[in-house]
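URGENT: need a sanity check before tomorrow's submission.

F., can you look over the Phospholipid/cholesterol/gamma-HCH transport system ATP-binding protein record below? I want to be sure the sequence and structure line up before it goes out.
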Amino acid sequence: MIEVINIRKSFGDKTILQDVSVNMEPGKTNLIIGASGSGKTVLMKCMVGLIEVDSGKIKYDGQDFTAMDDKEKKPIRQEIGMLFQGSALFDSMTVEQNIMFPLDMFSKEKYKVRMKRVQECLDRVNLKDANKKFPAEISGGMKKRVGIARAIVLNPKYLFVDEPNSGLDPQTSLVIDKLIKDITVEYNITTVVNTHDMNTVMESGDHIIYMHQGLKQWEGSNEDIIFADDQKLNDFIFASEFFQDIKEMRKTEMFRDKGWRTKKDGENSSRT
Ligand SMILES: Nc1ncnc2c1ncn2[C@@H]1O[C@H](COP(=O)(O)OP(=O)(O)OP(=O)(O)O)[C@@H](O)[C@H]1O
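Structure tokens as predicted:
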């Protein structure tokens, strides 16, 4: 689990994060959502230590990451996998070499053992016949898969993903979302995803954190979001009439499927 406890961050006289606290749980896809400039990336960078907080704490499984020096942070950093926007692959390396890179840096295993692990990860993300290809020779969706394979090659306990669907078509986005979610559950990873994609929110959001002007405005699951009455959240997620209608339809469906009673039935709404 990653605990974010009362963190604050300003740049000059501009406050970016105002007293944010949140727990990111293992085996869950924890999504950070919010408008451009609301502080999502700064929050994520504070969590991995790329930006130093002004006050507050970040704890990794109970260990106070913010109180550690660089040497003390190293073992935790080795347990963090990262997937950046645009996948950030090395253009001059093949797919295989890209995934091997973290192992070359941190593993003392023999080449054969490392290559076996590379192949396992390639198989896990369902990438076939791409080992010897260069990033320029594969599609955006395949690049994401390579990025995911590289992010999990060291068996991370924590996975940070920035905008997994940027530049992908809706269908490929769903496949990538599912892959991230499946891997999270399978390896019990604490996954933190920064996203603008409402499909991701509705499909993979076990735990959603909505940021508004540097504050944690709302948190809950993709099911809770249907029933949320936070005006700012609703304005953000269900901005268009189309999405508003879908929300109402989904709400009605969920009431029906789960046997909840609605006010429409002439009774008080009740969820159990
Ligand atoms: N290193 C920095 N120095 C000064 N200001 C910064 C720095 N990094 C971020 N900011 C400011 O912090 C605010 C929040 O930025 P952040 O990148 O977290 O937004 P975001 O919610 O991730 O937006 P987007 O969805 O567009 O990526 C912005 O006003 C940005 O200009």
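My own read: The beta strands are 2-11, 14-24, 28-34, 55-60, 63-64, 80-83, 158-162, 190-194, 207-212, 215-220. The chain has two domains: 2-229, 240-272. If you see anything odd, call me.
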